[in-house]
Amino acid sequence: MAKFQCVDELVKALHPIDPVYCLRKKSLKLAANWFKNNFPGDVLYAIKCNPADLVIKSLIKYGISHFDAASIDEIKLIKKISPSSTIYFMHPVKKESSIREAYFSYGVKAYSYDSKEELEKILKVTKNANDLELFLRIQASNEHAEIDLSKKFGANNNEAITLARVGRLKSKLFAFSFHVGSQCMHPIAYTKAIRNMGNIIKKSNIFPDIINVGGGFPTTYPDLYPQPIKNYFKEIKNAIKKLNLKKEPKLICEPGRALVAESGSTIVKIELKKKQNLYINDGTYGSLFDAGTPKFIFPTKAIQIENIPSKRLIPYSFYGPTCDGLDYMKGPFMLPSNIKTGDYIEIGQLGAYGMSFRTNFNGFYSNQIHEINDKPIMSIYEADDNYNIKTLFA
Ligand SMILES: Cc1ncc(COP(=O)(O)O)c(C=O)c1O
Protein backbone atom coordinates (compact mmCIF):
# COMPACT_ATOMS: atom_id res chain seq x y z
CA MET A 1 0.00 0.00 0.00
CA ALA A 2 1.36 3.38 -1.03
CA LYS A 3 0.15 6.90 -0.17
CA PHE A 4 -0.84 9.52 -2.73
CA GLN A 5 -2.08 13.10 -2.43
CA CYS A 6 -4.85 12.57 -4.97
CA VAL A 7 -6.14 10.06 -7.51
CA ASP A 8 -4.59 11.94 -10.47
CA GLU A 9 -1.17 11.62 -8.85
CA LEU A 10 -1.78 7.89 -8.34
CA VAL A 11 -2.75 7.32 -11.98
CA LYS A 12 0.23 9.34 -13.23
CA ALA A 13 2.62 7.35 -11.05
CA LEU A 14 1.24 3.84 -11.56
CA HIS A 15 -0.69 3.76 -14.85
CA PRO A 16 -2.52 0.84 -13.23
CA ILE A 17 -3.69 -1.99 -15.49
CA ASP A 18 -5.94 -3.49 -12.79
CA PRO A 19 -8.59 -1.75 -10.69
CA VAL A 20 -7.21 0.21 -7.75
CA TYR A 21 -9.08 0.66 -4.48
CA CYS A 22 -8.53 3.99 -2.74
CA LEU A 23 -9.08 4.59 0.97
CA ARG A 24 -9.20 7.94 2.79
CA LYS A 25 -8.37 8.07 6.50
CA LYS A 26 -9.63 11.65 6.76
CA SER A 27 -13.11 10.58 5.68
CA LEU A 28 -13.13 7.79 8.24
CA LYS A 29 -12.08 10.25 10.93
CA LEU A 30 -14.84 12.70 10.01
CA ALA A 31 -17.55 10.04 9.90
CA ALA A 32 -16.44 8.26 13.10
CA ASN A 33 -16.21 11.53 15.03
CA TRP A 34 -19.56 12.64 13.71
CA PHE A 35 -21.34 9.45 14.76
CA LYS A 36 -19.60 9.39 18.16
CA ASN A 37 -20.53 13.02 18.84
CA ASN A 38 -24.13 12.83 17.66
CA PHE A 39 -25.60 9.39 18.26
CA PRO A 40 -27.09 9.13 21.78
CA GLY A 41 -25.57 5.71 22.53
CA ASP A 42 -22.90 3.22 21.45
CA VAL A 43 -21.87 3.10 17.80
CA LEU A 44 -21.05 -0.37 16.45
CA TYR A 45 -19.35 -0.59 13.07
CA ALA A 46 -20.92 -3.24 10.78
CA ILE A 47 -17.70 -4.99 9.74
CA LYS A 48 -19.24 -6.61 6.63
CA CYS A 49 -19.32 -3.26 4.94
CA ASN A 50 -15.55 -3.05 4.61
CA PRO A 51 -13.22 -5.21 6.67
CA ALA A 52 -9.99 -3.76 5.21
CA ASP A 53 -7.22 -3.37 7.79
CA LEU A 54 -6.85 0.35 7.19
CA VAL A 55 -10.58 0.89 7.69
CA ILE A 56 -10.78 -1.10 10.92
CA LYS A 57 -7.57 0.37 12.37
CA SER A 58 -8.64 3.92 11.48
CA LEU A 59 -12.10 3.51 12.98
CA ILE A 60 -10.55 2.16 16.18
CA LYS A 61 -8.08 5.06 16.24
CA TYR A 62 -10.96 7.53 15.86
CA GLY A 63 -12.93 6.07 18.74
CA ILE A 64 -15.07 3.20 17.45
CA SER A 65 -14.53 0.31 19.86
CA HIS A 66 -17.72 -1.70 19.32
CA PHE A 67 -18.35 -3.94 16.32
CA ASP A 68 -21.25 -5.76 14.70
CA ALA A 69 -19.96 -9.10 13.40
CA ALA A 70 -21.79 -11.59 11.20
CA SER A 71 -19.25 -14.44 11.19
CA ILE A 72 -16.51 -15.98 13.27
CA ASP A 73 -13.89 -14.74 10.80
CA GLU A 74 -15.03 -11.15 11.33
CA ILE A 75 -14.73 -11.69 15.09
CA LYS A 76 -11.21 -13.10 14.70
CA LEU A 77 -10.21 -10.20 12.48
CA ILE A 78 -11.26 -7.60 15.05
CA LYS A 79 -9.84 -9.45 18.04
CA LYS A 80 -6.49 -9.77 16.25
CA ILE A 81 -6.33 -6.03 15.62
CA SER A 82 -7.86 -4.93 18.91
CA PRO A 83 -8.35 -7.59 21.62
CA SER A 84 -10.16 -5.14 23.91
CA SER A 85 -12.93 -4.33 21.41
CA THR A 86 -16.50 -5.31 22.23
CA ILE A 87 -18.11 -7.54 19.65
CA TYR A 88 -21.79 -8.22 19.04
CA PHE A 89 -22.54 -11.37 17.02
CA MET A 90 -25.60 -10.05 15.23
CA HIS A 91 -26.36 -12.62 12.54
CA PRO A 92 -29.71 -14.20 13.43
CA VAL A 93 -28.63 -17.58 11.96
CA LYS A 94 -25.24 -18.77 13.23
CA LYS A 95 -23.23 -21.98 13.05
CA GLU A 96 -22.97 -23.85 16.36
CA SER A 97 -19.19 -23.99 15.99
CA SER A 98 -19.06 -20.21 15.50
CA ILE A 99 -21.10 -19.51 18.63
CA ARG A 100 -18.88 -21.91 20.60
CA GLU A 101 -15.69 -20.23 19.44
CA ALA A 102 -17.11 -16.73 19.86
CA TYR A 103 -18.23 -17.36 23.43
CA PHE A 104 -15.46 -19.58 24.79
CA SER A 105 -12.42 -18.32 22.85
CA TYR A 106 -13.27 -14.65 22.22
CA GLY A 107 -15.53 -13.75 25.14
CA VAL A 108 -18.44 -12.58 22.97
CA LYS A 109 -21.56 -12.14 25.11
CA ALA A 110 -24.04 -10.53 22.72
CA TYR A 111 -26.00 -12.69 20.24
CA SER A 112 -29.03 -12.02 18.08
CA TYR A 113 -31.87 -14.42 17.33
CA ASP A 114 -35.23 -14.26 15.61
CA SER A 115 -36.47 -17.81 16.16
CA LYS A 116 -36.93 -20.36 18.95
CA GLU A 117 -34.47 -22.71 17.25
CA GLU A 118 -31.68 -20.13 17.17
CA LEU A 119 -32.29 -19.14 20.78
CA GLU A 120 -32.11 -22.80 21.86
CA LYS A 121 -28.91 -23.20 19.84
CA ILE A 122 -27.25 -20.23 21.57
CA LEU A 123 -28.28 -21.50 25.02
CA LYS A 124 -27.19 -25.08 24.33
CA VAL A 125 -23.81 -24.16 22.85
CA THR A 126 -22.96 -21.66 25.60
CA LYS A 127 -24.07 -24.24 28.22
CA ASN A 128 -26.83 -21.92 29.48
CA ALA A 129 -24.32 -19.19 30.29
CA ASN A 130 -25.56 -16.62 32.78
CA ASP A 131 -23.88 -13.61 31.23
CA LEU A 132 -25.55 -13.53 27.81
CA GLU A 133 -26.88 -10.41 26.13
CA LEU A 134 -29.69 -11.61 23.90
CA PHE A 135 -30.93 -9.42 21.05
CA LEU A 136 -34.33 -10.33 19.63
CA ARG A 137 -34.42 -9.14 16.02
CA ILE A 138 -37.95 -8.09 15.15
CA GLN A 139 -39.42 -7.42 11.73
CA ALA A 140 -39.33 -3.86 10.48
CA SER A 141 -40.77 -2.40 7.33
CA ASN A 142 -38.04 -1.65 4.77
CA GLU A 143 -40.36 0.43 2.60
CA HIS A 144 -38.11 3.51 2.73
CA ALA A 145 -34.86 1.66 1.99
CA GLU A 146 -33.05 1.22 -1.29
CA ILE A 147 -31.96 -2.27 -0.20
CA ASP A 148 -34.63 -4.42 1.39
CA LEU A 149 -33.44 -6.76 4.14
CA SER A 150 -36.87 -7.45 5.61
CA LYS A 151 -37.70 -10.78 3.97
CA LYS A 152 -34.82 -12.72 5.40
CA PHE A 153 -34.73 -11.87 9.11
CA GLY A 154 -36.94 -10.70 11.92
CA ALA A 155 -39.59 -12.29 14.16
CA ASN A 156 -43.15 -11.18 13.47
CA ASN A 157 -45.13 -9.58 16.28
CA ASN A 158 -46.81 -12.79 17.42
CA GLU A 159 -43.58 -14.78 17.50
CA ALA A 160 -41.80 -11.87 19.18
CA ILE A 161 -43.99 -11.95 22.29
CA THR A 162 -42.94 -15.47 23.32
CA LEU A 163 -39.40 -15.03 22.07
CA ALA A 164 -39.03 -11.87 24.17
CA ARG A 165 -40.30 -13.60 27.31
CA VAL A 166 -37.91 -16.53 26.96
CA GLY A 167 -35.05 -14.26 25.94
CA ARG A 168 -35.58 -12.08 29.00
CA LEU A 169 -35.55 -15.15 31.29
CA LYS A 170 -32.37 -16.57 29.79
CA SER A 171 -30.28 -13.41 29.51
CA LYS A 172 -28.30 -11.08 31.71
CA LEU A 173 -29.29 -8.21 29.40
CA PHE A 174 -32.22 -8.36 27.01
CA ALA A 175 -32.51 -6.23 23.86
CA PHE A 176 -34.70 -5.62 20.85
CA SER A 177 -33.08 -4.97 17.49
CA PHE A 178 -34.31 -4.25 13.98
CA HIS A 179 -32.98 -3.10 10.62
CA VAL A 180 -34.98 -0.66 8.50
CA GLY A 181 -33.05 -1.66 5.34
CA SER A 182 -29.88 -0.25 3.85
CA GLN A 183 -29.70 3.30 2.47
CA CYS A 184 -32.92 4.23 4.25
CA MET A 185 -34.18 7.39 2.62
CA HIS A 186 -36.58 8.64 5.31
CA PRO A 187 -36.11 8.95 9.08
CA ILE A 188 -39.78 8.05 9.66
CA ALA A 189 -38.78 4.39 9.08
CA TYR A 190 -37.10 4.35 12.50
CA THR A 191 -40.19 5.84 14.18
CA LYS A 192 -42.38 3.17 12.63
CA ALA A 193 -40.03 0.40 13.75
CA ILE A 194 -39.78 1.78 17.30
CA ARG A 195 -43.56 2.21 17.49
CA ASN A 196 -43.99 -1.41 16.47
CA MET A 197 -41.44 -2.44 19.07
CA GLY A 198 -43.56 -0.51 21.59
CA ASN A 199 -46.55 -2.71 20.73
CA ILE A 200 -44.48 -5.82 21.38
CA ILE A 201 -43.29 -4.37 24.71
CA LYS A 202 -46.89 -3.67 25.72
CA LYS A 203 -48.19 -7.08 24.75
CA SER A 204 -45.29 -9.08 26.20
CA ASN A 205 -44.69 -6.83 29.21
CA ILE A 206 -40.98 -7.33 28.56
CA PHE A 207 -38.87 -4.19 28.84
CA PRO A 208 -35.52 -4.10 27.08
CA ASP A 209 -32.23 -3.11 28.70
CA ILE A 210 -30.93 -2.17 25.25
CA ILE A 211 -32.51 -1.04 21.99
CA ASN A 212 -30.47 -1.62 18.86
CA VAL A 213 -31.74 0.54 16.00
CA GLY A 214 -29.50 -1.24 13.49
CA GLY A 215 -27.90 0.28 10.41
CA GLY A 216 -29.59 1.81 7.40
CA PHE A 217 -28.32 5.37 7.84
CA PRO A 218 -27.85 6.76 4.36
CA THR A 219 -24.98 8.26 2.47
CA THR A 220 -25.42 10.26 -0.71
CA TYR A 221 -25.31 9.32 -4.39
CA PRO A 222 -25.89 11.46 -7.49
CA ASP A 223 -29.61 10.56 -7.52
CA LEU A 224 -30.12 9.99 -3.78
CA TYR A 225 -30.03 13.00 -1.47
CA PRO A 226 -31.25 11.94 1.96
CA GLN A 227 -32.05 14.27 4.84
CA PRO A 228 -29.20 15.00 7.28
CA ILE A 229 -28.55 12.00 9.55
CA LYS A 230 -29.14 14.32 12.52
CA ASN A 231 -32.83 14.21 11.58
CA TYR A 232 -32.73 10.42 11.82
CA PHE A 233 -31.26 10.63 15.33
CA LYS A 234 -33.91 13.19 16.38
CA GLU A 235 -36.63 10.88 15.09
CA ILE A 236 -35.16 7.93 17.02
CA LYS A 237 -34.89 9.91 20.26
CA ASN A 238 -38.47 11.21 19.98
CA ALA A 239 -39.90 7.80 19.14
CA ILE A 240 -38.18 6.20 22.13
CA LYS A 241 -39.33 9.00 24.42
CA LYS A 242 -42.91 8.37 23.31
CA LEU A 243 -42.67 4.76 24.49
CA ASN A 244 -42.71 6.14 28.06
CA LEU A 245 -40.53 3.37 29.41
CA LYS A 246 -39.98 3.39 33.19
CA LYS A 247 -36.25 2.88 32.79
CA GLU A 248 -34.55 4.36 29.75
CA PRO A 249 -32.84 1.61 27.78
CA LYS A 250 -29.31 1.99 26.46
CA LEU A 251 -29.24 2.73 22.74
CA ILE A 252 -26.93 1.24 20.16
CA CYS A 253 -26.70 1.55 16.38
CA GLU A 254 -24.83 -0.46 13.74
CA PRO A 255 -23.95 1.81 10.83
CA GLY A 256 -22.03 0.45 7.88
CA ARG A 257 -22.68 2.46 4.73
CA ALA A 258 -22.91 5.88 6.41
CA LEU A 259 -19.62 5.38 8.26
CA VAL A 260 -17.40 4.19 5.44
CA ALA A 261 -18.97 4.75 1.99
CA GLU A 262 -17.28 8.03 1.22
CA SER A 263 -13.87 6.86 2.41
CA GLY A 264 -13.45 4.52 -0.55
CA SER A 265 -13.38 4.75 -4.32
CA THR A 266 -12.33 2.54 -7.21
CA ILE A 267 -10.14 3.64 -10.10
CA VAL A 268 -10.99 1.72 -13.26
CA LYS A 269 -9.45 1.77 -16.72
CA ILE A 270 -11.46 1.91 -19.94
CA GLU A 271 -10.57 -1.10 -22.08
CA LEU A 272 -12.94 -0.27 -24.94
CA LYS A 273 -15.51 2.34 -25.88
CA LYS A 274 -18.60 1.39 -27.90
CA LYS A 275 -20.68 4.55 -28.31
CA GLN A 276 -21.95 5.28 -24.77
CA ASN A 277 -20.99 1.88 -23.37
CA LEU A 278 -17.63 1.78 -21.63
CA TYR A 279 -15.97 -1.62 -21.11
CA ILE A 280 -14.04 -1.20 -17.87
CA ASN A 281 -11.71 -3.45 -15.87
CA ASP A 282 -13.94 -3.82 -12.77
CA GLY A 283 -17.59 -4.79 -12.57
CA THR A 284 -20.41 -6.44 -10.70
CA TYR A 285 -18.20 -9.41 -9.76
CA GLY A 286 -15.68 -6.91 -8.43
CA SER A 287 -16.36 -3.79 -6.40
CA LEU A 288 -19.36 -2.67 -8.48
CA PHE A 289 -22.05 -5.17 -7.49
CA ASP A 290 -24.32 -2.38 -6.27
CA ALA A 291 -24.12 -0.65 -9.65
CA GLY A 292 -25.41 -3.85 -11.26
CA THR A 293 -28.23 -5.59 -9.44
CA PRO A 294 -29.58 -2.78 -7.23
CA LYS A 295 -28.63 -0.30 -10.01
CA PHE A 296 -27.03 2.30 -7.78
CA ILE A 297 -25.74 5.32 -9.65
CA PHE A 298 -22.29 6.16 -8.35
CA PRO A 299 -20.51 9.49 -8.71
CA THR A 300 -17.73 9.43 -11.29
CA LYS A 301 -14.72 11.54 -12.16
CA ALA A 302 -12.71 11.20 -15.37
CA ILE A 303 -8.93 10.99 -15.29
CA GLN A 304 -8.01 11.50 -18.93
CA ILE A 305 -4.58 10.63 -20.22
CA GLU A 306 -4.25 12.65 -23.44
CA ASN A 307 -7.34 14.80 -23.99
CA ILE A 308 -8.30 17.84 -22.01
CA PRO A 309 -11.63 16.72 -20.46
CA SER A 310 -14.60 18.07 -22.38
CA LYS A 311 -16.98 20.15 -20.25
CA ARG A 312 -19.87 18.37 -21.96
CA LEU A 313 -20.86 15.49 -19.67
CA ILE A 314 -22.94 12.74 -21.22
CA PRO A 315 -24.50 9.57 -19.76
CA TYR A 316 -22.59 6.30 -20.05
CA SER A 317 -23.25 2.70 -19.06
CA PHE A 318 -20.50 0.28 -18.02
CA TYR A 319 -19.72 -3.33 -18.88
CA GLY A 320 -17.41 -5.19 -16.48
CA PRO A 321 -14.50 -7.44 -17.47
CA THR A 322 -16.15 -10.89 -17.14
CA CYS A 323 -18.00 -12.75 -19.89
CA ASP A 324 -21.31 -12.64 -18.03
CA GLY A 325 -24.01 -10.44 -19.56
CA LEU A 326 -25.13 -9.59 -16.02
CA ASP A 327 -21.81 -7.81 -15.58
CA TYR A 328 -23.53 -4.62 -16.70
CA MET A 329 -24.01 -1.34 -14.89
CA LYS A 330 -26.71 0.77 -16.43
CA GLY A 331 -25.93 4.08 -14.75
CA PRO A 332 -26.24 6.71 -16.12
CA PHE A 333 -22.67 7.63 -15.19
CA MET A 334 -21.96 11.19 -16.26
CA LEU A 335 -18.56 11.60 -17.92
CA PRO A 336 -16.93 13.86 -20.53
CA SER A 337 -18.05 13.24 -24.10
CA ASN A 338 -14.42 12.89 -25.24
CA ILE A 339 -13.41 10.18 -22.71
CA LYS A 340 -11.76 7.27 -24.53
CA THR A 341 -10.10 3.88 -24.31
CA GLY A 342 -7.05 4.00 -22.04
CA ASP A 343 -8.51 6.75 -19.83
CA TYR A 344 -9.34 6.17 -16.19
CA ILE A 345 -12.45 6.80 -14.10
CA GLU A 346 -12.65 7.25 -10.37
CA ILE A 347 -15.93 5.82 -9.05
CA GLY A 348 -16.85 7.21 -5.63
CA GLN A 349 -18.87 6.09 -2.59
CA LEU A 350 -17.46 2.57 -2.81
CA GLY A 351 -15.97 2.39 0.68
CA ALA A 352 -19.13 0.51 1.65
CA TYR A 353 -20.00 -2.80 0.01
CA GLY A 354 -17.38 -2.26 -2.72
CA MET A 355 -14.10 -4.01 -1.95
CA SER A 356 -15.92 -6.47 0.29
CA PHE A 357 -17.93 -7.85 -2.65
CA ARG A 358 -14.94 -8.72 -4.86
CA THR A 359 -14.69 -12.21 -6.38
CA ASN A 360 -12.15 -13.73 -8.76
CA PHE A 361 -14.80 -14.89 -11.22
CA ASN A 362 -13.29 -15.37 -14.70
CA GLY A 363 -9.86 -14.69 -13.20
CA PHE A 364 -10.44 -11.00 -12.61
CA TYR A 365 -9.36 -9.90 -9.15
CA SER A 366 -7.35 -6.97 -7.95
CA ASN A 367 -5.97 -6.35 -4.50
CA GLN A 368 -4.25 -3.04 -5.18
CA ILE A 369 -5.24 -0.83 -2.27
CA HIS A 370 -3.73 2.63 -1.73
CA GLU A 371 -4.21 5.49 0.67
CA ILE A 372 -5.35 8.81 -0.76
CA ASN A 373 -5.34 12.20 0.93
CA ASP A 374 -7.85 14.16 -1.18
CA LYS A 375 -11.56 14.77 -0.63
CA PRO A 376 -14.09 12.18 -1.77
CA ILE A 377 -16.19 13.03 -4.84
CA MET A 378 -19.28 13.38 -2.63
CA SER A 379 -19.53 13.82 1.12
CA ILE A 380 -22.28 14.29 3.67
CA TYR A 381 -19.71 15.14 6.34
CA GLU A 382 -18.09 17.92 4.36
CA ALA A 383 -21.38 19.42 3.21
CA ASP A 384 -22.05 23.03 4.24
CA ASP A 385 -24.41 24.10 7.04
CA ASN A 386 -27.39 23.86 4.71
CA TYR A 387 -26.43 20.27 4.00
CA ASN A 388 -25.65 21.29 0.46
CA ILE A 389 -23.99 18.13 -0.79
CA LYS A 390 -24.24 19.19 -4.42
CA THR A 391 -21.57 21.82 -3.84
CA LEU A 392 -19.02 19.04 -3.47
CA PHE A 393 -20.13 17.17 -6.52
CA ALA A 394 -17.98 18.90 -9.13
C1 LIG B 1 -27.41 -6.73 11.26
C2 LIG B 1 -26.89 -5.61 10.42
N1 LIG B 1 -26.43 -4.49 11.01
C3 LIG B 1 -25.94 -3.46 10.30
C4 LIG B 1 -25.85 -3.51 8.91
C5 LIG B 1 -25.27 -2.34 8.19
O1 LIG B 1 -26.25 -1.69 7.48
P1 LIG B 1 -25.98 -0.34 6.70
O2 LIG B 1 -24.79 -0.54 5.86
O3 LIG B 1 -27.23 -0.12 5.93
O4 LIG B 1 -25.77 0.73 7.73
C6 LIG B 1 -26.34 -4.65 8.24
C7 LIG B 1 -26.28 -4.72 6.79
O5 LIG B 1 -26.68 -5.66 6.15
C8 LIG B 1 -26.86 -5.73 9.00
O6 LIG B 1 -27.31 -6.85 8.41
Report what the structure shows.
With 394 residues, the chain is α/β, with parallel strands linked by helices. The chain folds into two domains: 152 residues, Lyase, Ornithine Decarboxylase, Chain A, domain 1 (Beta Barrel), CATH 2.40.37; 236 residues, Alpha-Beta Barrel (TIM Barrel), CATH 3.20.20. The chain is built from eleven helices and 19 strands. Strands 1, 2, 13, 14, 15, 16, 17, 18 and 19 form a nine-stranded mixed β-sheet that branches. An eight-stranded parallel beta barrel has the order 3-4-5-6-7-9-11-12. Helix 4 links the parallel strand 4 and strand 5. Helix 2 crosses helix 3, helix 7 packs across helix 8 and helix 8 runs parallel beside helix 9. The longest helix is centred in the middle third of the chain and has 17 residues. It is elongated and about 70 Å long. The two termini are 28 Å apart. The model has no long low-confidence stretch (mean pLDDT 96). The chain binds pyridoxal-5'-phosphate (PLP).
